[in-house]
Amino acid sequence: MVYPPASISNRIFWKVLLPTGLFCVLLALAALTYPSPKSKSSLTSPLETCAWNHLEPHLSLLSVPPIRRSEFLGRQKALALELDAAGVDAFIAEPSASTSYYANISSSFHLSERPFLMIIDKDGQFTTLVPKFEAGRIAKLDMVFDNKTTITWIEEESPYEALARGTGYEKVMIDEHARFMIAAGLQKAGIEVVPMSETIQSLRSIKSLDEIALLKGINSFTLALVQSLQRCIQIGMTQEEVIDASQALFTRAGVGHGFWVLALFGDQAALPHGGETGRTLQEGEFVLIDIGSELHGYCSDVTRTILPTGATVSDDLMAVWQIVWDAQSAGLSHMHAGEACSAIDGASRDVIKRAGYGQYYTHRLGHGLGLEGHEPPYLNGANDQKLKLAEVATNEPGIYVTTEEAAFLGKKVGFGIRLEDPILVTENGGVLLTGSRAQSPWNP
Ligand SMILES: *[C@@H]1O[C@H](CO)[C@@H](O)[C@H](O)[C@H]1NC(C)=O
Ligand SMILES: *[C@@H]1O[C@H](CO)[C@@H](O)[C@H](O)[C@H]1NC(C)=O
Predict the structure, then answer these.
(1) Residue with CA closest to ligand 2 atom 12
(2) Ligand 1: which residue has its CA nearest to atom 8?
(3) What residues form DSSP beta bridges with 151?
(4) Cis peptide leading into 377, omega within 30 of 0?
(5) Residue whose CB lies within 8 A of the most ligand 2 atoms, among 77, 147, 169, for a mutation test
(6) Which CATH architecture has domain 87-205?
(7) Residue among 161, 132, 152, 130 nearest 143 (CA)
(8) Does ligand 2 have an atom closer than 6 angstroms to the CB of 147?
(9) What separation in Å is there between the alpha carbon of 149 and the centre of ligand 2?
Protein backbone atom coordinates (compact mmCIF):
# COMPACT_ATOMS: atom_id res chain seq x y z
CA MET A 1 0.00 0.00 0.00
CA VAL A 2 1.28 3.51 -0.94
CA TYR A 3 1.34 5.94 1.98
CA PRO A 4 -0.64 8.16 2.21
CA PRO A 5 -3.25 6.18 0.22
CA ALA A 6 -4.38 8.03 -2.89
CA SER A 7 -7.97 8.16 -1.62
CA ILE A 8 -7.00 10.23 1.40
CA SER A 9 -6.52 13.91 0.67
CA ASN A 10 -3.38 15.79 1.66
CA ARG A 11 -5.40 17.86 4.10
CA ILE A 12 -6.46 14.79 6.15
CA PHE A 13 -2.89 13.50 6.05
CA TRP A 14 -1.38 16.69 7.56
CA LYS A 15 -4.20 17.50 9.98
CA VAL A 16 -5.18 14.06 11.30
CA LEU A 17 -3.01 11.12 10.26
CA LEU A 18 0.40 12.71 10.80
CA PRO A 19 -0.34 14.12 14.31
CA THR A 20 -2.02 10.83 15.31
CA GLY A 21 0.95 8.83 14.06
CA LEU A 22 3.41 11.05 15.93
CA PHE A 23 1.31 10.74 19.08
CA CYS A 24 1.41 6.92 18.81
CA VAL A 25 5.18 6.91 18.35
CA LEU A 26 5.54 9.09 21.49
CA LEU A 27 3.26 6.74 23.46
CA ALA A 28 5.28 3.72 22.36
CA LEU A 29 8.51 5.46 23.41
CA ALA A 30 6.97 6.31 26.79
CA ALA A 31 5.92 2.69 27.27
CA LEU A 32 9.49 1.55 26.52
CA THR A 33 11.10 4.14 28.81
CA TYR A 34 8.92 3.74 31.89
CA PRO A 35 8.35 0.37 33.54
CA SER A 36 4.68 -0.46 33.11
CA PRO A 37 2.64 -1.57 36.14
CA LYS A 38 2.02 -5.34 36.32
CA SER A 39 -0.65 -5.88 33.71
CA LYS A 40 -3.42 -8.51 33.95
CA SER A 41 -1.85 -10.56 31.17
CA SER A 42 1.24 -11.19 33.29
CA LEU A 43 -1.01 -13.14 35.71
CA THR A 44 -2.38 -15.44 33.02
CA SER A 45 -0.01 -17.90 31.36
CA PRO A 46 0.61 -17.67 27.60
CA LEU A 47 -1.03 -21.12 27.29
CA GLU A 48 -4.20 -19.94 29.03
CA THR A 49 -4.36 -16.72 26.99
CA CYS A 50 -3.90 -18.57 23.71
CA ALA A 51 -6.38 -21.36 24.56
CA TRP A 52 -9.02 -18.91 25.84
CA ASN A 53 -9.10 -17.22 22.43
CA HIS A 54 -10.09 -20.53 20.87
CA LEU A 55 -12.43 -21.55 23.70
CA GLU A 56 -14.41 -18.36 24.26
CA PRO A 57 -16.61 -18.79 21.14
CA HIS A 58 -17.84 -22.11 22.64
CA LEU A 59 -19.10 -20.67 25.95
CA SER A 60 -22.72 -20.90 24.81
CA LEU A 61 -22.45 -24.71 25.07
CA LEU A 62 -22.80 -24.16 28.82
CA SER A 63 -26.12 -22.31 28.56
CA VAL A 64 -28.23 -25.21 29.80
CA PRO A 65 -30.71 -24.72 32.66
CA PRO A 66 -30.41 -26.76 35.88
CA ILE A 67 -32.90 -29.50 36.71
CA ARG A 68 -36.36 -28.05 37.46
CA ARG A 69 -38.49 -28.63 40.54
CA SER A 70 -41.11 -30.58 38.56
CA GLU A 71 -38.45 -33.07 37.45
CA PHE A 72 -37.30 -33.67 41.04
CA LEU A 73 -40.91 -34.32 42.08
CA GLY A 74 -41.37 -36.69 39.13
CA ARG A 75 -38.30 -38.66 40.25
CA GLN A 76 -39.77 -39.00 43.75
CA LYS A 77 -43.05 -40.31 42.29
CA ALA A 78 -41.25 -42.83 40.07
CA LEU A 79 -39.25 -44.05 43.08
CA ALA A 80 -42.43 -44.45 45.17
CA LEU A 81 -44.04 -46.61 42.46
CA GLU A 82 -41.01 -48.91 42.27
CA LEU A 83 -40.80 -49.20 46.07
CA ASP A 84 -44.43 -50.21 46.18
CA ALA A 85 -43.85 -52.79 43.44
CA ALA A 86 -40.82 -54.14 45.31
CA GLY A 87 -42.80 -54.51 48.53
CA VAL A 88 -40.64 -52.21 50.65
CA ASP A 89 -41.90 -49.33 52.77
CA ALA A 90 -39.24 -46.73 51.97
CA PHE A 91 -35.90 -45.81 50.42
CA ILE A 92 -33.27 -44.31 52.74
CA ALA A 93 -30.17 -42.36 51.70
CA GLU A 94 -27.42 -40.25 53.27
CA PRO A 95 -26.29 -37.07 51.44
CA SER A 96 -24.91 -38.51 48.18
CA ALA A 97 -25.57 -38.54 44.45
CA SER A 98 -28.91 -40.21 45.26
CA THR A 99 -30.09 -37.33 47.47
CA SER A 100 -28.86 -34.87 44.80
CA TYR A 101 -30.93 -36.79 42.30
CA TYR A 102 -34.16 -37.11 44.27
CA ALA A 103 -34.23 -34.00 46.41
CA ASN A 104 -31.41 -31.61 45.41
CA ILE A 105 -29.57 -32.36 48.69
CA SER A 106 -25.96 -31.98 47.64
CA SER A 107 -23.54 -34.87 48.04
CA SER A 108 -21.08 -32.28 49.40
CA PHE A 109 -23.05 -32.09 52.66
CA HIS A 110 -20.53 -33.22 55.25
CA LEU A 111 -21.25 -36.70 56.65
CA SER A 112 -20.68 -36.95 60.39
CA GLU A 113 -21.28 -39.73 62.87
CA ARG A 114 -24.73 -38.20 63.50
CA PRO A 115 -27.10 -39.46 60.79
CA PHE A 116 -29.01 -37.04 58.56
CA LEU A 117 -31.21 -39.17 56.29
CA MET A 118 -33.51 -38.58 53.34
CA ILE A 119 -36.47 -40.95 53.31
CA ILE A 120 -38.98 -41.38 50.48
CA ASP A 121 -41.69 -43.95 51.05
CA LYS A 122 -43.92 -46.02 48.81
CA ASP A 123 -46.71 -43.43 49.10
CA GLY A 124 -44.36 -40.67 47.99
CA GLN A 125 -44.11 -39.13 51.46
CA PHE A 126 -40.85 -37.20 51.91
CA THR A 127 -39.23 -37.35 55.34
CA THR A 128 -35.90 -36.26 56.78
CA LEU A 129 -34.30 -37.62 59.92
CA VAL A 130 -32.18 -34.83 61.43
CA PRO A 131 -30.15 -34.29 64.59
CA LYS A 132 -32.22 -31.79 66.59
CA PHE A 133 -29.42 -29.26 67.03
CA GLU A 134 -28.74 -29.31 63.24
CA ALA A 135 -32.38 -28.82 62.22
CA GLY A 136 -31.93 -25.10 61.53
CA ARG A 137 -28.94 -25.59 59.27
CA ILE A 138 -30.56 -28.47 57.39
CA ALA A 139 -33.80 -26.52 56.87
CA LYS A 140 -31.76 -23.93 54.93
CA LEU A 141 -30.77 -26.46 52.23
CA ASP A 142 -32.38 -26.04 48.78
CA MET A 143 -34.23 -29.33 49.26
CA VAL A 144 -37.06 -30.13 46.84
CA PHE A 145 -40.21 -31.88 48.12
CA ASP A 146 -43.96 -31.59 47.95
CA ASN A 147 -44.79 -32.16 51.59
CA LYS A 148 -42.05 -32.80 54.12
CA THR A 149 -42.15 -34.48 57.49
CA THR A 150 -39.14 -33.92 59.74
CA ILE A 151 -38.20 -36.39 62.45
CA THR A 152 -35.68 -34.87 64.83
CA TRP A 153 -33.66 -36.96 67.25
CA ILE A 154 -32.03 -35.79 70.43
CA GLU A 155 -28.69 -36.95 71.74
CA GLU A 156 -30.32 -38.98 74.56
CA GLU A 157 -31.94 -41.45 72.11
CA SER A 158 -31.13 -43.70 69.16
CA PRO A 159 -31.84 -41.91 65.85
CA TYR A 160 -32.94 -45.23 64.37
CA GLU A 161 -35.46 -45.85 67.12
CA ALA A 162 -36.79 -42.34 66.57
CA LEU A 163 -37.19 -43.20 62.89
CA ALA A 164 -38.86 -46.55 63.60
CA ARG A 165 -41.25 -44.93 66.05
CA GLY A 166 -41.98 -41.96 63.83
CA THR A 167 -42.71 -43.92 60.63
CA GLY A 168 -43.73 -47.47 61.55
CA TYR A 169 -41.68 -48.82 58.61
CA GLU A 170 -40.90 -52.54 58.75
CA LYS A 171 -38.76 -53.01 55.64
CA VAL A 172 -36.59 -50.37 53.94
CA MET A 173 -34.20 -50.23 50.99
CA ILE A 174 -30.81 -48.62 51.66
CA ASP A 175 -28.98 -46.50 49.08
CA GLU A 176 -25.73 -48.00 47.74
CA HIS A 177 -23.70 -45.12 49.23
CA ALA A 178 -25.19 -45.22 52.75
CA ARG A 179 -22.69 -46.29 55.39
CA PHE A 180 -22.89 -49.70 57.05
CA MET A 181 -23.57 -48.05 60.42
CA ILE A 182 -26.90 -46.76 59.04
CA ALA A 183 -28.01 -50.25 57.97
CA ALA A 184 -26.82 -51.76 61.26
CA GLY A 185 -28.58 -49.07 63.31
CA LEU A 186 -31.88 -49.57 61.47
CA GLN A 187 -31.69 -53.34 61.91
CA LYS A 188 -31.00 -52.92 65.60
CA ALA A 189 -34.15 -50.79 65.82
CA GLY A 190 -36.11 -53.72 64.34
CA ILE A 191 -36.38 -52.54 60.70
CA GLU A 192 -35.52 -55.04 57.98
CA VAL A 193 -32.96 -53.62 55.55
CA VAL A 194 -32.54 -54.66 51.90
CA PRO A 195 -29.88 -53.43 49.43
CA MET A 196 -30.68 -51.09 46.55
CA SER A 197 -32.19 -53.05 43.66
CA GLU A 198 -31.05 -52.90 40.05
CA THR A 199 -34.46 -51.50 39.07
CA ILE A 200 -34.08 -48.57 41.44
CA GLN A 201 -30.46 -48.05 40.41
CA SER A 202 -31.60 -47.76 36.80
CA LEU A 203 -34.05 -44.93 37.67
CA ARG A 204 -30.93 -42.74 37.98
CA SER A 205 -28.77 -44.39 35.29
CA ILE A 206 -31.47 -43.75 32.65
CA LYS A 207 -31.22 -40.05 31.79
CA SER A 208 -34.04 -37.60 31.08
CA LEU A 209 -33.94 -35.12 28.19
CA ASP A 210 -32.90 -32.32 30.58
CA GLU A 211 -30.10 -34.44 32.01
CA ILE A 212 -28.91 -35.37 28.51
CA ALA A 213 -28.84 -31.66 27.61
CA LEU A 214 -26.65 -30.94 30.65
CA LEU A 215 -24.29 -33.84 29.92
CA LYS A 216 -24.06 -32.81 26.27
CA GLY A 217 -23.34 -29.21 27.27
CA ILE A 218 -20.52 -29.90 29.72
CA ASN A 219 -18.95 -32.73 27.71
CA SER A 220 -18.91 -30.90 24.38
CA PHE A 221 -17.49 -27.85 26.18
CA THR A 222 -14.81 -30.05 27.77
CA LEU A 223 -13.83 -31.35 24.33
CA ALA A 224 -13.67 -27.76 23.03
CA LEU A 225 -11.31 -27.00 25.94
CA VAL A 226 -9.01 -29.92 25.01
CA GLN A 227 -9.07 -28.76 21.37
CA SER A 228 -8.15 -25.23 22.42
CA LEU A 229 -5.24 -26.58 24.52
CA GLN A 230 -4.00 -28.68 21.57
CA ARG A 231 -3.73 -25.57 19.42
CA CYS A 232 -1.55 -23.84 22.01
CA ILE A 233 0.59 -26.53 23.72
CA GLN A 234 4.21 -26.43 22.61
CA ILE A 235 7.31 -28.59 22.97
CA GLY A 236 9.12 -27.47 26.14
CA MET A 237 6.00 -26.78 28.19
CA THR A 238 5.65 -28.51 31.54
CA GLN A 239 2.86 -30.75 32.73
CA GLU A 240 2.02 -28.19 35.43
CA GLU A 241 1.52 -25.44 32.82
CA VAL A 242 -1.11 -27.63 31.12
CA ILE A 243 -2.81 -28.49 34.42
CA ASP A 244 -2.87 -24.86 35.65
CA ALA A 245 -4.16 -23.54 32.32
CA SER A 246 -6.91 -26.18 32.25
CA GLN A 247 -8.12 -25.20 35.69
CA ALA A 248 -7.97 -21.50 34.82
CA LEU A 249 -9.97 -22.08 31.61
CA PHE A 250 -12.77 -24.00 33.37
CA THR A 251 -12.83 -21.37 36.12
CA ARG A 252 -13.05 -18.50 33.61
CA ALA A 253 -15.96 -20.31 31.95
CA GLY A 254 -17.73 -20.55 35.32
CA VAL A 255 -17.45 -24.35 35.62
CA GLY A 256 -14.30 -24.62 37.74
CA HIS A 257 -16.16 -26.38 40.52
CA GLY A 258 -15.54 -30.13 40.28
CA PHE A 259 -12.57 -29.63 37.96
CA TRP A 260 -9.92 -32.37 37.67
CA VAL A 261 -7.25 -33.17 35.06
CA LEU A 262 -4.55 -35.67 34.11
CA ALA A 263 -1.91 -34.27 31.73
CA LEU A 264 0.68 -36.96 30.98
CA PHE A 265 3.68 -36.67 28.66
CA GLY A 266 5.37 -39.56 26.82
CA ASP A 267 6.05 -42.66 28.93
CA GLN A 268 4.43 -41.00 31.94
CA ALA A 269 1.09 -41.99 30.37
CA ALA A 270 2.05 -45.68 30.62
CA LEU A 271 0.35 -45.62 34.02
CA PRO A 272 -3.29 -44.91 33.09
CA HIS A 273 -3.74 -42.55 36.04
CA GLY A 274 -0.25 -41.06 35.92
CA GLY A 275 2.63 -41.04 38.32
CA GLU A 276 5.55 -38.65 38.41
CA THR A 277 5.08 -34.92 37.86
CA GLY A 278 7.32 -32.11 36.65
CA ARG A 279 8.01 -33.40 33.14
CA THR A 280 8.79 -31.15 30.16
CA LEU A 281 7.29 -32.05 26.79
CA GLN A 282 9.85 -33.43 24.31
CA GLU A 283 9.70 -33.85 20.55
CA GLY A 284 8.35 -37.34 19.68
CA GLU A 285 6.04 -37.61 22.72
CA PHE A 286 2.28 -37.77 22.92
CA VAL A 287 0.32 -35.68 25.44
CA LEU A 288 -2.53 -37.56 27.13
CA ILE A 289 -5.17 -35.22 28.56
CA ASP A 290 -8.01 -36.77 30.61
CA ILE A 291 -10.17 -34.00 31.98
CA GLY A 292 -13.56 -33.14 33.42
CA SER A 293 -15.70 -30.73 35.39
CA GLU A 294 -19.37 -30.22 36.30
CA LEU A 295 -22.37 -28.26 35.05
CA HIS A 296 -25.20 -28.00 37.63
CA GLY A 297 -23.88 -31.20 39.22
CA TYR A 298 -23.55 -33.19 35.96
CA CYS A 299 -20.05 -34.43 35.14
CA SER A 300 -17.82 -34.42 32.09
CA ASP A 301 -15.06 -36.91 31.34
CA VAL A 302 -13.11 -36.62 28.07
CA THR A 303 -9.69 -38.00 27.06
CA ARG A 304 -7.60 -37.16 24.04
CA THR A 305 -4.06 -38.21 23.13
CA ILE A 306 -2.70 -35.27 21.17
CA LEU A 307 0.33 -33.74 19.48
CA PRO A 308 1.14 -30.03 19.28
CA THR A 309 0.73 -28.55 15.81
CA GLY A 310 3.87 -29.37 13.80
CA ALA A 311 5.12 -32.03 16.25
CA THR A 312 5.37 -35.70 15.28
CA VAL A 313 5.87 -39.15 16.78
CA SER A 314 7.31 -42.29 15.14
CA ASP A 315 5.15 -44.12 12.57
CA ASP A 316 5.10 -46.98 15.04
CA LEU A 317 3.43 -44.86 17.73
CA MET A 318 0.99 -43.36 15.20
CA ALA A 319 -0.06 -46.93 14.33
CA VAL A 320 -0.84 -47.60 18.01
CA TRP A 321 -2.93 -44.39 18.18
CA GLN A 322 -4.93 -45.77 15.23
CA ILE A 323 -5.45 -49.15 16.95
CA VAL A 324 -6.94 -47.37 19.99
CA TRP A 325 -9.19 -45.35 17.66
CA ASP A 326 -10.36 -48.58 15.96
CA ALA A 327 -11.06 -50.15 19.38
CA GLN A 328 -13.15 -47.10 20.27
CA SER A 329 -15.07 -47.51 16.99
CA ALA A 330 -15.83 -51.14 17.85
CA GLY A 331 -17.10 -50.13 21.30
CA LEU A 332 -19.24 -47.35 19.85
CA SER A 333 -20.90 -49.60 17.27
CA HIS A 334 -22.07 -51.93 20.09
CA MET A 335 -23.42 -49.26 22.43
CA HIS A 336 -27.10 -49.71 21.66
CA ALA A 337 -29.95 -50.63 24.01
CA GLY A 338 -30.08 -54.35 24.81
CA GLU A 339 -26.35 -55.08 24.32
CA ALA A 340 -24.56 -56.72 27.28
CA CYS A 341 -21.91 -54.53 28.93
CA SER A 342 -19.41 -57.42 28.78
CA ALA A 343 -19.96 -57.84 25.02
CA ILE A 344 -19.25 -54.14 24.37
CA ASP A 345 -16.05 -54.33 26.40
CA GLY A 346 -15.16 -57.52 24.51
CA ALA A 347 -15.69 -55.91 21.09
CA SER A 348 -13.19 -53.13 21.85
CA ARG A 349 -10.76 -55.62 23.45
CA ASP A 350 -10.78 -57.90 20.36
CA VAL A 351 -9.43 -55.10 18.19
CA ILE A 352 -6.52 -54.49 20.56
CA LYS A 353 -5.84 -58.22 21.06
CA ARG A 354 -5.72 -58.82 17.30
CA ALA A 355 -3.13 -56.04 17.00
CA GLY A 356 -0.97 -57.80 19.61
CA TYR A 357 -1.49 -55.35 22.49
CA GLY A 358 -4.11 -57.30 24.46
CA GLN A 359 -2.11 -57.43 27.69
CA TYR A 360 -1.49 -53.68 27.55
CA TYR A 361 -5.19 -52.77 27.61
CA THR A 362 -5.34 -52.99 31.37
CA HIS A 363 -8.73 -51.49 32.29
CA ARG A 364 -12.43 -51.82 31.44
CA LEU A 365 -13.91 -50.03 28.43
CA GLY A 366 -15.94 -47.51 30.42
CA HIS A 367 -18.31 -46.42 33.16
CA GLY A 368 -21.62 -44.63 33.54
CA LEU A 369 -21.56 -40.83 33.85
CA GLY A 370 -24.08 -38.44 35.38
CA LEU A 371 -24.22 -36.87 38.84
CA GLU A 372 -21.22 -39.09 39.59
CA GLY A 373 -18.03 -39.24 37.54
CA HIS A 374 -18.16 -43.04 37.80
CA GLU A 375 -21.57 -44.70 38.22
CA PRO A 376 -23.51 -47.65 36.72
CA PRO A 377 -23.55 -49.04 34.08
CA TYR A 378 -19.96 -50.36 34.14
CA LEU A 379 -18.65 -51.65 30.81
CA ASN A 380 -16.40 -54.51 31.91
CA GLY A 381 -15.96 -58.20 31.12
CA ALA A 382 -17.70 -59.33 34.32
CA ASN A 383 -20.92 -57.33 33.87
CA ASP A 384 -23.62 -59.11 31.88
CA GLN A 385 -26.23 -56.39 32.52
CA LYS A 386 -27.74 -55.06 29.30
CA LEU A 387 -27.51 -51.39 28.38
CA LYS A 388 -30.81 -49.53 28.61
CA LEU A 389 -32.19 -46.81 26.40
CA ALA A 390 -30.93 -43.35 27.49
CA GLU A 391 -28.17 -44.60 29.75
CA VAL A 392 -24.84 -42.78 29.41
CA ALA A 393 -21.42 -44.46 29.61
CA THR A 394 -17.88 -43.59 28.57
CA ASN A 395 -16.15 -45.43 25.71
CA GLU A 396 -12.44 -45.24 26.59
CA PRO A 397 -10.08 -47.96 25.40
CA GLY A 398 -6.32 -47.51 25.90
CA ILE A 399 -2.91 -49.11 25.40
CA TYR A 400 -0.22 -48.63 28.06
CA VAL A 401 3.37 -49.80 27.72
CA THR A 402 6.00 -48.90 30.33
CA THR A 403 9.58 -48.24 29.31
CA GLU A 404 10.60 -51.62 30.84
CA GLU A 405 7.93 -53.40 28.77
CA ALA A 406 8.76 -51.44 25.61
CA ALA A 407 11.90 -53.55 25.03
CA PHE A 408 9.74 -56.67 24.53
CA LEU A 409 7.92 -54.86 21.75
CA GLY A 410 11.11 -53.65 20.07
CA LYS A 411 10.51 -50.08 21.22
CA LYS A 412 12.83 -47.78 23.15
CA VAL A 413 10.47 -45.88 25.45
CA GLY A 414 7.08 -46.49 26.95
CA PHE A 415 3.87 -44.68 26.10
CA GLY A 416 0.18 -44.51 26.93
CA ILE A 417 -2.66 -43.78 24.53
CA ARG A 418 -6.34 -43.42 25.44
CA LEU A 419 -9.34 -41.88 23.69
CA GLU A 420 -12.57 -41.26 25.61
CA ASP A 421 -16.02 -39.99 24.70
CA PRO A 422 -19.16 -40.30 26.82
CA ILE A 423 -21.92 -41.98 24.82
CA LEU A 424 -25.72 -41.81 25.01
CA VAL A 425 -27.35 -45.21 24.44
CA THR A 426 -30.13 -45.19 21.84
CA GLU A 427 -32.03 -47.92 19.95
CA ASN A 428 -29.83 -47.43 16.92
CA GLY A 429 -26.44 -47.15 18.57
CA GLY A 430 -24.27 -44.79 20.54
CA VAL A 431 -24.54 -41.01 20.22
CA LEU A 432 -21.48 -38.90 21.12
CA LEU A 433 -22.09 -36.42 23.97
CA THR A 434 -18.86 -34.62 23.00
CA GLY A 435 -20.25 -33.91 19.52
CA SER A 436 -17.28 -35.36 17.63
CA ARG A 437 -14.57 -38.00 17.83
CA ALA A 438 -10.83 -37.41 17.52
CA GLN A 439 -9.78 -37.20 13.87
CA SER A 440 -6.04 -37.39 14.54
CA PRO A 441 -3.57 -36.37 17.30
CA TRP A 442 -3.50 -32.90 15.69
CA ASN A 443 -7.25 -32.68 15.32
CA PRO A 444 -8.70 -33.93 18.60
C1 LIG B 1 -31.00 -26.95 43.84
O2 LIG B 1 -29.92 -26.45 44.61
C3 LIG B 1 -29.18 -25.43 44.00
C4 LIG B 1 -27.98 -25.13 44.87
O5 LIG B 1 -28.34 -24.95 46.20
C6 LIG B 1 -30.09 -24.24 43.80
O7 LIG B 1 -29.37 -23.20 43.17
C8 LIG B 1 -31.27 -24.64 42.94
O9 LIG B 1 -32.16 -23.58 42.81
C10 LIG B 1 -32.00 -25.84 43.56
N11 LIG B 1 -33.02 -26.32 42.62
C12 LIG B 1 -34.31 -26.29 42.89
C13 LIG B 1 -35.23 -26.82 41.85
O14 LIG B 1 -34.75 -25.88 43.95
C1 LIG C 1 -48.49 -33.90 54.41
O2 LIG C 1 -48.18 -35.19 54.88
C3 LIG C 1 -48.77 -35.52 56.12
C4 LIG C 1 -48.24 -36.86 56.53
O5 LIG C 1 -48.44 -37.82 55.54
C6 LIG C 1 -50.29 -35.47 55.98
O7 LIG C 1 -50.88 -35.73 57.24
C8 LIG C 1 -50.72 -34.10 55.48
O9 LIG C 1 -52.08 -34.08 55.22
C10 LIG C 1 -49.96 -33.73 54.20
N11 LIG C 1 -50.26 -32.37 53.82
C12 LIG C 1 -50.53 -32.01 52.58
C13 LIG C 1 -50.79 -30.56 52.35
O14 LIG C 1 -50.54 -32.81 51.64
Answers:
(1) 147
(2) 142
(3) 129
(4) yes
(5) 147
(6) 3-Layer(aba) Sandwich (3.40)
(7) 130
(8) yes
(9) 8
Angle at 266 between CA 262 and CA 268, to 5 degrees: 55
CA 287 to each of CA 49, 212, 264, 306, 312: distance values in angstroms, whole numbers, following the listed order: 20, 29, 6, 5, 11
Q: What is the Cα–Cα distance from 394 to 432, expressed in whole angstroms?
A: 10
For residue 150 and ligand 2, the question of a CB distance below 6 A is answered with no
Amino acid residing at 407: A
CB of 104 shorter than 6 A to ligand 1: yes
The one-letter amino acid code at 284 reads G
Q: Nearest C-alpha to atom 9 of ligand 1 is from which residue?
A: 142
Sign, CA torsion 115/116/118/119: positive
Could you state, in order of their start, the residue ranges of all structural domains in the chain?
87-205, 209-432
Nearest 10 degrees: Cα torsion 294, 269, 442, 229? 40
Per-residue pLDDT tens over the stretch 249-292: 999 999 999 999 999 999 999 987 776 777 899 999 999 999 99
Q: Which residue did the predictor score with more confidence, 437 or 108? A: 437
Read off the pTM: 0.89
Give me ligand 2 centre to Cα 147, in Å. Answer: 6
Distance CA 363, CA 382 (A): 12
Residue 288 CB coordination number (10 Å):
26
Which tens digits make up the pLDDT trace of 207-247?
Answer: 999 999 999 999 999 999 999 999 999 999 999 999 999 99
CA 132 / ligand 1 centre spacing (Å): 24
Please tell me the residue having the least CA distance from ligand 2 atom 9: 147
Q: How far is CA 204 from the centre of its chain?
A: 16
Give the whole-angstrom CA distance, residue 432 versus residue 328.
12
Does the Cβ of 140 fall within 6 Å of ligand 1? no
For 95-163, the three-class secondary structure string (H helix, E strand, C coil) is: CCHHHHHHHCCCCCCCCCCCCCEEEEECCCCEEEEEEHHHHHHHHCCCCCCCCEEEEEECCCCCHHHHH
Segment 152-170, tens digit of pLDDT: 999 999 999 999 999 999 9
What is the number of the ligand closest to the CA of 99? 1
Q: For residue 123, which atom of ligand 2 is closest to its CA?
A: 5
Cβ 142 under 6 angstroms from ligand 1: yes
DSSP for residue 359: G
Buried b (16+ CB within 10 A) or exposed e, 42-57: eebbebbebbbebbee
Residue 63: which of 179, 206, 214 has the closest Cα?
A: 214
Nearest bound ligand to the CA of residue 125? 2
CATH 3.10.180.10 fits 209-432, yes or no: no
Tell me, in angstroms, the distance from the centre of ligand 1 to residue 103's CA. 9
